[in-house]
Automatic annotation (TrEMBL):
It comes from Neovison vison (American mink). Its main location: secreted. This is Alpha-2-HS-glycoprotein. It is found in: Secreted. GO terms for cellular component: blood microparticle; extracellular matrix; Golgi apparatus.
Length: 357
């Protein structure tokens, strides 16, 4: 009798844990240009730009792929692949992304490639996982389009570093306010005619007055940072050089919130969550920002790769919830696509908003 009772209890437990085949396991593939898909992609781009540590803001160029997975007990997860383009707005520039200009092909454009998972719940989008990298257009393509256009130069080239030093010295010499220190060299190009070095760099104000500085090493960055962004051209000429520099100083930025005791700290080694994990676990803890280690500057890097330029994110979920098994691909549900004889036109990739690199 005891054995029979035990078997019945075990059967009930197994029944509670099982999921009927085909129940809520299907993903759907909406059109890449569907408004909801674009909302998820734009939310992801904003997330990335808000966490970029160096370089320039990126904007959405094309949605390459989307799958939408149901997530119990509520919500959906958008699994996205998108292409982005670098803009001319530095990450420290508070200008809204909608007002930032996309860097053109003739200026040696930079393209980003991102894999993302975005949760939609109660009409709100939040990023669960983001992984990006970026690369400049090839020199061959730039030369083919514009033979005389300058290419990107290594950021630590001696001529580039010298041009930034001269430009920053000239800017501080003309300043009636704070003394500014270099934050990063953001972009550089060697211009053939007239022979010159073009640079873009970020700066930050210190507690020293520019006109009184005798030893820059004694100057400290302000607690409430005041950043700026400069563009300069150092022209070589017989017997010397001329520099032209313009800097835009942004409003003082408030101090970021400091971590409190007991705040969750994610393991940087946390792998990207699989669709199975996203579906199986009903309790979400996150997203948790993972600060990537400071990457050394390679000798010939000409731009800040998104792979190293922003802090990643990992989603951490509970081990409880419905069972989900990855086997054969689940049935795909494509909304608003009529079933008809003949080949089915796949709704992705989506439209190109600017140009293809």
């Amino acid at each position: 009798m005891r054995t029979l009772t035990l078997l019945l209890c075990l059967a009930q437990l197994l029944g509670c844990r099982s999921v009927p085949v085909g129940t809520a396991l299907a993903y759907r593939e909406p059109n890449c240009d569907d408004p909801e898909t674009e909302q998820a992609a734009l939310a992801a781009v904003d997330y990335i730009n808000n966490r970029v540590l160096r370089g320039y803001k990126h904007t959405l160029n094309q949605i390459d792929k989307v799958r939408v997975w149901p997530r119990r007990p509520m919500g959906e997860v958008f699994e996205l692949e998108i292409d982005t383009l670098e803009t001319t707005c530095h990450v420290l520039d508070p200008t809204p992304l909608a007002n930032c200009t996309v860097r053109q092909l003739t200026e040696h454009a930079v393209e980003g490639d991102c894999d993302l998972r975005v949760l939609k719940q109660d009409g709100q989008f939040s990023v669960l996982f983001a992984k990006c990298d970026s690369s400049p257009d090839s020199a061959e393509d730039v030369r083919r389009l514009c033979p005389g256009c300058p290419l990107l130069a290594p950021l630590n080239d001696t001529k580039v570093v010298h041009a930034v030093d001269v430009a920053l010295t000239a800017f501080n010499a003309q300043s009636n306010g704070s003394y500014f220190q270099l934050v990063e060299i953001s972009r550089a190009q060697f211009v053939p005619l007239p022979q010159s070095t073009y640079v873009e760099f970020a700066v930050a104000a210190t507690d020293c007055a520019a006109k009184d500085v005798t030893d820059p090493a004694k100057c400290n960055l302000l607690a409430e940072k005041q950043n700026g962004f400069c563009k300069a051209t150092l022209m070589e000429k017989v017997g010397g050089e001329d520099v032209a520099v313009t800097c835009t100083v942004f409003q003082t930025q408030p101090l970021p919130p400091q971590p409190q005791p007991g705040d969750a700290v994610a393991d940087p080694a946390v792998p990207a969550p699989s669709p199975a994990n996203l579906l199986a676990d009903p309790l979400l803890v996150g997203p948790v920002v993972v600060a990537l280690p400071e990457a050394p500057l390679p000798g010939h890097r000409a731009h800040y790769d998104l792979r190293h330029a922003f802090a990643g994110v990992a989603s951490v979920e509970s081990a409880s919830g419905e069972a989900f098994h990855v086997g054969k691909a689940p049935k795909v549900v494509q909304p608003n696509v009529a079933v008809a004889a003949g080949p089915l036109v796949h709704p992705c990739p989506g439209r190109i908003r600017y140009f293809k690199v």
